[in-house]
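ok so for the tutorial part 2 we go from a plain amino acid sequence to predicted structure tokens. step 1 is just haveing the sequence, like this:
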Amino acid sequence: MTETRFWLIRHALVEENARAVVYGTMDVELCPHTLEAQVPMYRALARRLPRPATWLASPLSRTQRTAAAIFRAGYPEQTLRIVPGLIELGFGEWQGQPHDDVAGQLTMPPHAFWPLAGHERPPGGESMADGILRLGETMEQLAESHTGDVVAVSHGGAIRAAIAHAIGLSADMALHFSIENISLTRLDRTPRGWRVACVNELPGV
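step 2 — the prediction. this is what the tokens look like for a chain of 205 residues:
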């Protein structure tokens, strides 16, 4: 088995109204003011990422627009392959509801750093435990079909789930990771197993 290096990027900050609700897999807009203010960070990220590389994104437009911002900042424009398995965790019937309303519907205490406990499954949605299984399968399939460097623009919950798969963490442990917008996390699939190269690296910082 050859090595695959996954450069996982969380999408840019979403617009203010979307942040007021649990948006999960809703296709929401990015914050235009933050995109403009963070141009130096996008330039640093464009310099940091490997060339050449295969580029992937989730089906949601916020990941694809984040990739476009990196290309505008100096990385040569690439064709994006859309990978459904990289999508954010789905919150089912709770999507679109204000955070306080969702808090009143939980069946177990929320995690300190996530709206839900690791095993809380929203009606029609996914728990973090479900997400770890999904992202694990997706990452293993991508490692089998790609070698070398792969840049994947994804989501905070999905990247936490990928880390948990890589190093065997429980759902609640995975939620202790901070994955900020446009941060970089690198996971390497080597012949000896998964290796974590960096987590939540902010460009230019």
